[in-house]
Amino acid sequence: MTAMHVDSHCIFCKIVAGHIPSRKAYEDDEFLVFHDIAPWAPVHLLVIPKTHIASLAETDPAEHAAMLGRMLALAPRLAKENGADNGFRTVINTGSDGGQEVYHLHMHVIGGPRPWAKG
Ligand code: AMP
Question: Which member of 15, 76, 77, 111 has the greatest number of CB atoms within 10 A?
């Protein structure tokens, strides 16, 4: 496994370290999944790598393609386990034009019965 990076100013690194609480939905050696604090929909999860990567734009295919594949591959299971039985959306906001607010790579998994608050 590659070295774990931590950014001491990053809110999601603080969640990984347990210094800021979160409602965890799943965890393994590589990823943490928790409920978004401001959900758009009945199911709104954030999947993050535990290591600090600022955004999708910072990834390198040679180093990160397999990790990104594993991250995406978690989505169907997470959706199902959390009650999004009828479809879901996966979103990765990247950079300022992409609407990224937290600069620690994360994938939103959004679903559950409509109407949703957004989207
Ligand atoms: P993005 O615009 O893709 O960077 O989205 C960042 C997401 O992180 C937003 O949907 C926020 O509601 C969510 N968020 C920010 N702080 C927390 C937190 N402490 N716990 C859970 N979700 C958070």
Answer: 111
